[in-house]
User: What shape does this take?
Amino acid sequence: MAHTTDRGGRKAGTRKRADAERNIVAIIAAATESFARDPDASMTDIAKAAGLGRVTLYAHFPSREQLLRTVLAETIAESTRIIEAASPAEGPPAEALARMIRSCWPLLSRFGSLHAAAQRALPADEVRRRHDRPMAHVERLVARGRAEGAFRTDLPVEWLVTTVYTLLHAAADEAAAGRLATEAVGEILEKTLLAALKSE
Amino acid sequence: MAHTTDRGGRKAGTRKRADAERNIVAIIAAATESFARDPDASMTDIAKAAGLGRVTLYAHFPSREQLLRTVLAETIAESTRIIEAASPAEGPPAEALARMIRSCWPLLSRFGSLHAAAQRALPADEVRRRHDRPMAHVERLVARGRAEGAFRTDLPVEWLVTTVYTLLHAAADEAAAGRLATEAVGEILEKTLLAALKSE
DNA sequence: CATAAGTCGAACAGGGTTGTTCGACTACCT
DNA sequence: AGGTAGTCGAACAACCCTGTTCGACTTATG
Assistant: This one.
């Protein structure tokens, strides 16, 4: 149990069997999908979705809470990557915002109720804290837009950020429910948010 | 068991004891408050909040689901009353919308997560169906605004309604969480929504 | 190929929920 | 003042969930 040196150079036996590593990613994928569909998804649901036994989940994640934490972290990391790929710090603020909106909303749509799941099972401040990395990008963009005279200054920055965030989610939900045509969402969001944010 | 005529003119023994009627309103009040605070509020929670025994709840409501249904119906009825009191069909659309917003948001704030509770425990289409009475007022107002050239016509009406609805809720949540000053909410919502809806 | 690592199903304990039943008790109503 | 409608607490059954343990089985890996 404490060989410490096995050839591969691993310290404390952290290297798992290829088998197990494959299952871990399968579990995370299944959990992501399950939580996105049903915020109350149980370990049984997720195990079934992953095609594995429930016990196996507990072999890799000590608790449902921890699994959810992991899923949330990975998802937010991907969001951050996508936001940064839209280079929100470059070009005219309005155009940067439009770029961000269009690249972002499919993600929110795909991850559906995962956020609700997190808010239900994890402490509220933790959820908020984990979000503030990607959130900062939006906030920075809004602040820049205000400084450059493109966005309105008569409302609190945080409220404008909340507006962006909320409407992104709402549009994603509407699209998921089939009440909004997928192709139209980008344009609709862009028009709505630019109108809500632009100065004058 | 089938007296049918008892003097008071009641048909099938529907008249309850004054005692019981008092408790029924207490239960509904407690349930409303409990659901508004915690969408997962249990019958035990509600009974405790009402100062009654859990069994008594079941004496008046056959199930938690039915109780939630009742609470939802009463709440929506009150919303409808408040919306109508703002006479959304009169005056310039922008002003009518502003009136409606200002009279509406404290309600949404007060009822907090009741909507979430309903969405969790009741079939989605039922929740939606119950909302379409008050929703119709908003939709009518938006449509009128478009017809009179005050509101934009380049986006679907349903999306504009969703925008109003969503941002009202978001602002109410922010206020409840202390991230938005209560006195400021009305003005902030009015400015944001008018900017999002107005034509051009 | 042998062994250690991983999987799996069944079964368990512990907690929570919804509804129901019982008998004793209490408030109302006439 | 007495009969009845209503309340209440305790206890029950049924269900679902999380986490854990067991022993038997399968698979990777060296």
Residues 7, 17-20, 42-44, 55, 58, 62-64 of chain B lie near DNA strand C (CB under 10 Å from a C1'). The first helix of chain B runs from residue 18 to 37.
